[in-house]
Specification:
Blueprint: E1 3-8, H1 13-24, E2 28-33, E3 50-53, H2 58-70, E4 75-76, H3 79-85, H4 88-97, E5 105-108, H5 111-120, E6 126-129, E7 140-142, H6 145-158, E8 166-170, E9 177-184, E10 187-195, E11 208-211, H7 216-228, E12 233-241, E13 244-251, H8 260-263, H9 267-282
Parallel strand pairs: 1-2, 1-3, 3-4
Antiparallel strand pairs: 5-8, 6-7, 6-8, 9-10, 9-12, 10-11, 12-13
InterPro entries: ATP-grasp, ATP-grasp_RimK-type, ATP_grasp_subdomain_1, LysX/ArgX_preATP_grasp, LysX_arch, PreATP-grasp_dom_sf, Rp_bS6_RimK/Lys_biosynth_LsyX
Keywords: Amino-acid biosynthesis, ATP-binding, Ligase, Magnesium, Metal-binding, Nucleotide-binding
Family: Belongs to the RimK family. LysX subfamily.
């Protein structure tokens, strides 16, 4: 029986869905809490056929992935994919480099650089984001220089070194929603609208998920975005703009508990199938 090593920290609803899907498909599933592991290359012996990295902690998950790959294990998603997707600036660079429609962005390291970036982006308002982060946390819609000064001062005084890199993005007036599509392997399997009265539409912050039809345009854009970051199991965040659909961010350990019911698609089942296909292709 092929065995998936599920590397986790907190076991969320998503991991429970993956466990259930694996058991329904008669696949072995081994739960491995990375908080309890000692990753010593002299003694660690993988006892699974493929690793599925699902840690809540990006840092811990990243180190675990690099370690397992160094031992020759196959990890979903690979470290190269994770390294790009966990960093919003690197994601934007990858999208732009490959010609995927995306929002205008810039990186700055001081207030004056940030003000120059605002001008390049078309002026206020802009969105300031931490390069590393998820769940819509620490995002700020900045309407003027006074607000930008205050945010940068707080980041400089209170923030970690990563917070002192200011990732700025053009602000787009959404139609009360955005789109999250799910790509597994080479297929866009489903998508949701995330609707909210707030400009941040993340379901973690109360956005409501409803089914979004996967049109040819949406599918092609999602696959282009996935290819830009080297593919795998991904969630693509997309914004509807006056110029058409544009990719905002890409998630490599996405949450999907609010997406299976409205879409009628077993995302967890597709994840397990992808892992099993990878095991078979490596035999």
């Amino acid at each position: 029986m092929p065995t998936i090593g599920l590397f986790h920290s907190t076991v969320r609803a998503e991991e429970k869905l993956i466990i259930r899907a694996a058991r329904e498909k008669k696949a072995g599933i081994k739960l491995i809490d990375i908080r309890n592991e000692v990753f010593n290359p002299l003694h660690y012996r993988p006892d699974f056929d493929i690793a599925l990295e699902r840690s809540v902690s990006t840092v811990k998950g990243g180190y675990a992935t690099e370690f397992l790959e160094a031992l020759g294990a196959v990890v979903i998603n690979p470290s190269g994919v994770a390294r790009i997707c966990e960093d919003k600036f690197l994601t934007s660079l990858a999208l732009q480099k490959t010609g995927v429609p995306t929002l205008k962005f810039a990186m700055a390291f001081s207030l004056e650089q940030a003000m120059a970036a605002v001008a390049d982006l078309g002026g206020f308002p802009v969105v300031v984001k931490p390069p590393l982060g998820s769940w819509g946390r620490m995002l700020a819609k900045v309407n003027d220089r006074d607000s930008l000064e205050a945010i940068i001062e707080h980041k400089d005084v209170l923030g970690s070194p990563q917070q002192k890199a200011y990732y700025l993005q053009e602000y787009i007036q959404k139609p009360g929603r955005d789109i999250r599509s799910f790509v597994v392997g080479g297929e866009t399997i489903c998508a949701i609208y995330r609707t909210s009265s707030h400009w941040i539409t993340n379901t973690a912050l109360g956005g409501k998920a409803t089914n979004c039809p996967v049109t040819k345009e949406l599918s092609q854009l999602s696959l282009q975005a996935a290819k830009a970051v080297r593919g795998g199991i991904l969630a693509i965040d997309i914004i509807e703009t006056s110029e058409g659909l544009k990719v905002n961010e890409i998630n490599h350990t996405m949450e999907f508990k609010n997406s299976e019911e409205p879409t009628g698609v077993s995302i967890s089942g597709a994840i397990v199938d992808y892992c099993l296909q990878k095991i078979n292709s490596n035999d």
